[in-house]
Amino acid sequence: xxxxxxxxxxxPQTIADPVIYWNDVLLELIRREDQATPGRMARAAAMLNxxxxxxxxxxxxxxxxxxxxxxxxxxxxxWALGEGPDEEERVIGRTAxxxxxxxxxxxxxxxxxxxxxxxxxxxxxxxxxxxxxxxxYSIVSHVVNRMLTAHEGDGSTNExxxxxxxxxxxxxxxxxxxxxxxxxxxxxKAVDPNWGLVKPFALTSGSQFRPATPGMYGTYEKLLASDExxxxxxxxxxxxxxxxxxxxxxxxxxxxxxxxAWFWGNDLDGTYKPPGQLLQATREISEARKLTTxxxxxxxxxxxxxxxxxxxxxxxxxxxxxxxxxxPVSAIRESGIDPEWKPLLKTLDGVNISPCxxxxxxxxxxxxxxxxxxxKRYFGTDNVTFTMTTDDKQSPVQSRTFTSFSQAxxxxxxxxxxxxxxxxxxxxxxxxxxxxxxxxxxDNELQRVS
Length: 450
Prior knowledge:
The protein is an all-alpha fold.
């Protein structure tokens, strides 16, 4: 017997918009996933939101006379005798569930992720996710399969280990006797060293907007001998130190800068990571402006595509260029400048750490700039006042208010220097790279149809 459309009304909802609901589910899955990385999280967001957008576009094509903006992959005018109850909600929600199940449901060591996902489906629909729905056959399975096929074999499963150049200036593991990091005890622990080779969602390749510096120096020897490199090291030594030392008797970071550094952190497991903070901000801005479901579907997709491709582009810079730049802690300690120097960033147990991958360019800066670029182009202005939040438990404040998207992106970039884990040029090049990615995504994806 053919599956039947659900007839019962949805349970009472505290979150009306399905796009926002399933993005909330994604962020919680990221918090719960062991060692989730920013690039993988951004890829998941792009696949989720682009699939929901195509599902919503298909619904509008079938029942609302069409859509205003082109789908990401394809929209179908699927077969139906008549519009079923809560059909828009079901098309989006069942698409979201199946994409997330594919992305988070295969880890045998974390079955609780599927349990959580199933519970969120039940809470939304009041039924089991395994139950039949005619929409699964007429449209949902087609949207989901197209998304999964488009990114099958995209390079995201490449687990080849990193091999360091072993030269002064080249990145190396950042675990030291007085700041032990079991997740970064050897060079091969470098996180996602092949992510810059992943197939992008909109860009032609991860290297499309590769910046010139510090790769323009060509060799580590020339880089370290340059006056600019010395200025970069000195800036982060003074601004990013955890505490004064004999060789660094004064830390010039202000109280406000330290608060911002922690607010933008979200480096540790258990947080929604940097892309998640920007998706959460997107939600808060959307709700304040009362966007419709279709508007949200397009906005969250543009943001997520830009974040995903930023994650790929910045990993290209970190690993695929001539310079895999070491972290400030290595530059300062191993050059003999200050063997006691530690970055402000630390675990919840108070152990100072640095992210376990090369410094140049900054992922936070790239993500933040790509997000800000999409947001200001979507809303037609940069001058939007908004408040956003953080997941970082070490942040002294849980929210900060900004008067423009670019102001938030600039502070996000600067915060990495104040946290002691990046040089200023990492932030500057990340801002430029993110802007280029954001503009390319906005100019080439989900365009208005004539």
